Amino acid sequence: MFNGLALLIGVLWFIFKPDFEPALTSLALLATLIGLIVKGRVSSARGVDRELFQQLRQYLPSDGSIAFIDTNNFAGFSFALARLGDLDKFVNLWDDAEHEFLNKKLEQKRKQLMRLVKEYLSVIALQTFPTHTPGWNSVPEEWEIEQPDRFDAVVNKLHTLAGQIVELHQDLFRTARKKLKC
Length: 182
Hints:
Distance between the termini: 30 Å
Strand content: under 5%
Radius of gyration: 27 Å
Number of strands: 3
Number of helices: 7
Order of helices and strands: HHHEHHEEHH
Shape: elongated
Oligomer: single chain
């Protein structure tokens, strides 16, 4: 409000006394006003992204499914599908416009993470099978003998994707903390 009033006074001063000082004052005040408007928009966008990042921390924490896929060996060992729950929630709830970051770098990383998690869950769905324990799956251990190439390919794919997901998740979180100052 004050900057707008000062700008108006500077413009009136220039109109009634067209000289160098009133023109320079008007330009300086205009630049300041534009700077404040732009800063307000950036600050507002940062606030929206900060809130979204806090939600992401709850849905996809480092100590949930991310930690599980980082440490689990899928080479014929069974695992509880529930341990992948954070990844399922992320794919099902975060693949829409409501959950897009305004910051382009953060949004690019979120989309990349979404693509990797979808691919990972697809391999889990198509290449692992239920065990005798309800809610548990595994890459069939008999494949190691009967279909060793398939076994190795599936296990390597799961481990590679898991590593990429963990790395990108950490990169997204580090970048968000730097950009959003939180």
